[in-house]
Automatic annotation (TrEMBL), chain A:
GO molecular function annotation: ATP binding; ATP hydrolysis activity; L-isoleucine transmembrane transporter activity; L-phenylalanine transmembrane transporter activity; L-valine transmembrane transporter activity
Gene3D superfamilies noted in UniProt: P-loop containing nucleotide triphosphate hydrolases
PROSITE patterns documented for this protein: ABC_TRANSPORTER_1, ABC_TRANSPORTER_2
GO cellular component terms listed in the entry, alphabetical order: plasma membrane
CDD domains the record matches: ABC_Mj1267_LivG_branched
Domain of life: Bacteria
Name of the protein: Amino acid/amide ABC transporter ATP-binding protein 1, HAAT family
UniProt lineage: Bacteria, Pseudomonadati, Pseudomonadota, Alphaproteobacteria, Rhodobacterales
Record flagged with keyword DNA-binding: no
Any one Gene Ontology BP term: L-alanine transport
Organism: Salinihabitans flavidus
Keyword entries, A-Z: ATP-binding, Nucleotide-binding, Transport
Pfam families: ABC_tran, BCA_ABC_TP_C
Automatic annotation (TrEMBL), chain B:
InterPro entries per the UniProt record, alphabetical: ABC_transp_permease, LivM-like
Transmembrane residue ranges: 12-43, 49-72, 84-107, 113-130, 163-182, 251-272, 292-310
Alphabetized UniProt keyword annotations: Cell membrane, Membrane, Transmembrane, Transmembrane helix
Protein name: Amino acid/amide ABC transporter membrane protein 2, HAAT family
GO cellular component: plasma membrane
Membrane topology (UniProt): Multi-pass membrane protein
Molecular function GO labels: branched-chain amino acid transmembrane transporter activity
Coiled coil: none
Length: 254, 321
């Protein structure tokens, strides 16, 4: 008997105008899994992410989180229920320092835990929140960048800052859209190591999209291959790698 | 206590003290203008709370000023037995209620420029309703608003003449400080986050529209408070106060002084008051000079006067060091 899935999508469809981007996508992610969704450009990975996180509504199908249906809920509600998410191009608050970025996230978690009214007018962040900010920043190697404006941070720092902000909400499922996009091979290896470490220490379930095969096979406990909006393979990394269909459309030429 | 807060209180205290000195050195005409400037400061700060603080552009802020002024005037004329400070609270809340009703509809449907146009349309509607309502004096407005009394039991203080001026300066100083505290609170930080990246903020679990609605209501409360304090000062409230041209005033002050600094709009309001006074005898020229000045500032010094001063200060310090 396996655990109930953390995230489940059934017969998920999404069209933009006349173009159908997702065709009856079925996805089931078990607790503790690190699922990587791969597929060529235009396969629908980002659209799948947007539908699952609630950034855009899906047209058909059912999405549930830990057994509760979330299909019609907006993104912020899904975040409150335990989904964290980062974007392909890191979204941070550019005019704030890295520490202020983190403070916004930690205060948001605190607000959700306590209810809004108590914290409407308090001034400096409470000492415990400051400690929480510092802890997360050192855990994600951001301490050196703390007091610099986020817009001038190095690419990798921006990515880690965004991940740290998502983790501040204490999610059960973290969705990472191309976490190593634009990184050098050395930085990639570091990023993979860090994500794996965070997954283990925070007990996270991960859902990622990724292009780089070393990252994919470095992190995935299970792979899903998306091609032209349909799932063509789903299973253990070694099995998927051996799947002739997958080799043809994606891994292709080796 | 927080160091920034202490500095701000010192600054606001100095500013308030400077205003309090005006009756000692100037005639009653100047004192009257200074009272209006103090009120305009809070009006402009309340507008900038939305613009710089939450990324919401309001072209209709006169409706809140009018809500506060008419509520105060109506109570003062029809129910003078209600204590002044209670009336003040009710008048300020009237702005909050108006902001909630409007914001509830508009924030659901629109953002950016569309939102701004909706504020303009809604405030035009408020203006028309006022000019058609008998109880609000239609186009003539409400006249003969008395300067109030405050106190408890037999201990009464009549806020007449310069005493009301003192009350204006004290209440507006406190209101400005309250706005500063709001801007620098966790809520203010979250609104700033929404302004900088709305999608990111919603993916931190924030219901963006609800927070923006809160900002809109807080801004409405403070603009209405400014209007409420203004009514007994000018002793007349006319529909002009709800006119769209009144909505341009806080925008002019804020752009002149600089929107990116909290006190920018306050400086803009003071400079505008001085300019107004300096050109009071040149009919027609006054509008032109303020228009030209604003054009020069916006084109040549996008950060506003305060932004310019701070930049000059920094450059000097660097040159010294």
């Amino acid at each position: 008997m396996t655990d109930a899935p953390i995230l489940e999508a059934k017969a998920l469809c999404k069209s933009y105008g006349l173009v159908q981007v997702l065709h009856d996508v079925e996805l089931s992610i078990a607790p503790g899994e690190s699922r990587v969704v791969i597929g060529p450009n235009g396969a629908g990975k980002t659209t799948l992410f947007k539908c699952l996180s609630g950034e855009v509504p899906s047209d058909k199908g059912v999405i549930s989180l830990e057994g509760r249906e979330i299909t019609g809920l907006r993104g912020w509600r899904r975040v409150q229920m335990g989904i964290g998410r980062t974007f392909q191009v890191a979204r941070i608050f550019p005019e704030m320092t890295a520490r202020e970025n983190m403070t916004v996230a930690v205060e948001m978690r605190d607000r959700l835990a306590r209810g809004t009214a108590r914290r409407l007018f308090s001034l400096a962040p409470a000492a415990e929140l400051r400690a929480e900010v510092d802890e997360l920043m050192s855990e994600l190697d951001l301490a050196a960048a703390a007091d610099r404006p986020a817009r001038i941070l190095a690419h990798g720092d921006k990515k880690r800052l965004e991940l740290a902000m998502s983790l501040a909400l204490r999610p059960t499922l973290v969705m990472l859209d191309e976490p190593t996009a634009g990184m050098s091979p050395a930085d990639r290896a570091d990023a993979v190591a860090m994500i794996a470490r965070l997954r283990d220490t925070h007990g996270l379930t991960l859902l990622l999209t990724e292009h780089d095969m070393e990252v994919v096979f470095g992190l995935a406990t299970r792979l899903t291959v998306l091609h032209q909006g349909r799932i063509i393979a789903d299973g253990a990394p070694a099995d998927v790698r051996a799947d002739p269909n997958v080799r043809e459309v994606y891994l292709g030429h080796d | 206590m927080n160091r920034d807060l202490a500095k701000t209180m010192a600054l606001a205290g100095l500013g308030g003290a400077a205003f309090l000195c005006v009756p000692l050195v100037a005639n009653s005409g100047v004192v009257f203008l200074a009272g209006l400037v103090a009120i305009n400061i809070v009006f402009a700060l309340s507008w900038n709370l939305l613009f710089a603080g939450a990324g919401l552009l309001s072209f209709g802020h006169s409706m809140f000023l009018a809500a506060g002024a008419y509520t105060m005037a109506k109570f003062s004329l029809s129910a003078p037995e209600v204590p002044f400070l209670l009336t003040l609270v009710l008048a300020a809340l009237s702005g909050g209620v108006l902001a909630w009703v409007f914001g509830f509809v508009a924030l659901r449907r629109a953002s950016g420029t569309y939102f701004a146009i909706l504020t303009l349309a809604f405030s035009a509607l408020v203006h028309i309703v006022i000019t058609k309502t008998d109880a609000l004096g239609r186009a003539d407005g409400l006249v003969g608003i008395r300067r109030p009394e405050i106190g408890v039991g037999s201990l009464r203080l009549s806020l007449d003449g310069d005493m009301y001026y003192v009350f204006i300066v004290l209440s507006m100083t406190l209101a400005a400080l309250a706005l500063w505290c709001f801007t620098h609170s966790p809520t203010g930080r979250l609104l700033q986050a929404i302004k900088q990246d709305r999608l990111r903020t919603s993916f931190l679990g924030a219901n963006v529209r609800r927070w923006q609605l809160l900002a809109f209501c807080v801004s409405g409360v403070f603009a209405a408070l400014a209007g409420a304090v203004m009514a007994p000062w000018s002793q007349i409230v006319s529909p002009e106060i709800a006119h769209w041209s009144m909505s341009t005033m806080p925008i002019l002050y804020a752009l002149l002084g600089g929107t990116s600094r909290f006190w920018g709009p306050a400086l803009g309001a003071i400079l505008f008051g001085m300019l107004d006074y300096g050109t009071r005898n040149m009919l027609g020229l006054a509008d032109m000079t303020s228009g030209i000045l604003l054009l020069v500032v916006v084109l040549a010094v996008p950060g506003g006067i305060l932004g310019l001063l701070l930049r000059v200060g920094r450059t000097r310090e660097e040159a010294k060091g």
